[in-house]
Structure formats: C-alpha cells, structure tokens
Design goal:
31% of the residues lie in helices and 19% in strands. The chain is α/β, with parallel strands linked by helices. The protein has 2 domains: 2-152, 3-Layer(aba) Sandwich (Alpha/beta knot); 169-223, Trp Operon Repressor, Chain A (Orthogonal Bundle), CATH 1.10.1270. The chain is elongated and about 70 Å long. The chain starts with a strand and ends in an 8-residue tail after the last helix.
Length: 226
C-alpha cells in the first residue's frame, strides 16, 4: 500500500511514522508513506497557501490552486483508490472503514488547516471525507496519522501475529475482553482461573461473555444492531 499525505506541516509526521509498528511496516516494504508539502505548490515566493474567506467571515482558508496542483501531479503519476479529506464533518472513522481502506493500493490523505479548504477541492477531487471524532483539531495532521495507523496495522505481515488484529475491539462489533499476563498472582490480585486452565472452549466462551459485558457497560450503542 502507498499512502500520500498532503500537508503544510510535514514535520508533524516525523514522530508517528518513525517508531513502532509503522516504522517496521515501511522497513519491510509493506507500505510506503510519502509526505508532500503543499507549500511547494504555492503561487508566490512567500509560499502562501491561504487567503481570506469570501463573504466576510472570520479566519483564513486554504487556497484551491496549491492543493489542486499537488493532487494533479500525483494522479498523473498513478491511479488512486481514494482521495480522503480529514475533516470534522466527515463520516466518523470506525473499524469497518479502516478494514475497507486497508485493502486499497494507493490513497491520498489531505490535511486541512485554518478554517478549512476551498470547497472546490472537495467538489472536484475528494472521494471520501473522514472524521476521527466530534471535535475540532488545529489541523488534519494528527487525524491523518491516526487514520494511517489504523489502516497500516491491518495489512498482512505488518503485525508479528496477524490474528492479533482480528481480536481487537470493534472487529466483531464488541469491545475486547480483559487481558492478563504474568504473574498469575500479584499481591493477591489473581488472573481468572479459566484463563490458566488450558481449556480452549471455556476460554473462548469466557472471552465472549466478558466482551459482551464490557460492551453493555461502556458502549451499549454497539449492541443496538445485534
């Protein structure tokens, strides 16, 4: 998979993409991440990429030309399955969306800033708009990093144990059950006996029961369609 990220703050991705699972995925050649500075496509030597809002509203808006030129350069080089704009008014990111996107070959993630981007970009280039929550960030960079992480970890070969992702919260519409590791007894706080029994059927039943209980307690909305 190839992910191209369009931003005016490329340095913000140095941390998230140079550590842990994503770093290993890139090193293995399982994914490519390319960061593009929208300012490289600015119309003047001052690298301006924003301007005042038509209509007199407060704030600045990212201009159509630099973003359009950047997207056009990329789309002339290869085909993209999705051109995604990270925005608070997009569809809310969930595990199903991450699963869908992990099957794509090439995607573009566009990070907005200021009051947003010129609407003509959304009308003529964007194929999907995604939000990571009902709140507003200073820009789309952190949201793009979250989305990229949620996708990349699902690519076969990225996780050392590929079955691990299948037991994550939300994969089956439930939250994950409690998990434990050694020691089995810490200051009298004991691991449930069933998890030490070696009885696979009982362990599966226990995990499912605890998943349902936790989901009822914390996210009952997830059970509405069950």
């Amino acid at each position: 998979m190839r992910i191209d990220i369009l931003t005016i703050f490329p340095e913000m991705f140095q941390g998230p993409f140079t550590e842990s699972i994503i770093k290993r995925a890139v090193a293995k050649g399982l994914t490519e991440i390319h960061i593009h500075n929208i300012r490289d496509f600015a119309i003047n030597k001052h690298k301006n990429v924003d301007d005042y809002v038509y209509g007199g509203k407060a704030g600045m808006v990212m201009m159509v030309q630099p973003i359009a030129d950047c997207i056009l350069q990329l789309t002339q080089e290869r085909e993209y399955d999705e051109v995604i704009f990270l925005t608070p008014d997009g569809e809310l990111l969930n595990q199903s969306i991450s699963n869908q996107l992990s099957l794509k070959k090439n995607i573009i993630l566009l990070c907005g800033h200021y009051k947003g981007i010129d609407e003509r970009i959304r009308e003529h280039f964007i194929t999907r708009e995604i939000s990571i929550g009902d709140y507003v960030l200073s820009g789309g960079e952190l949201a793009a990093a979250v989305l990229a992480d949620s996708i990349i970890r699902l690519i076969p070969g990225v996780l050392s144990d590929e079955t691990s992702a299948l037991s994550d919260s939300f994969q089956d519409g439930l939250l994950s059950p409690p998990v434990y590791t050694r020691p089995a007894d810490y200051n009298g706080w004991k691991v449930p006996n069933v998890l030490l029994s070696g009885n696979e059927k009982e362990i599966i039943n226990w995990n499912y029961t605890k998943s349902v209980e936790r989901t009822k307690q914390r996210r009952p909305d997830l059970l509405d369609d069950k």
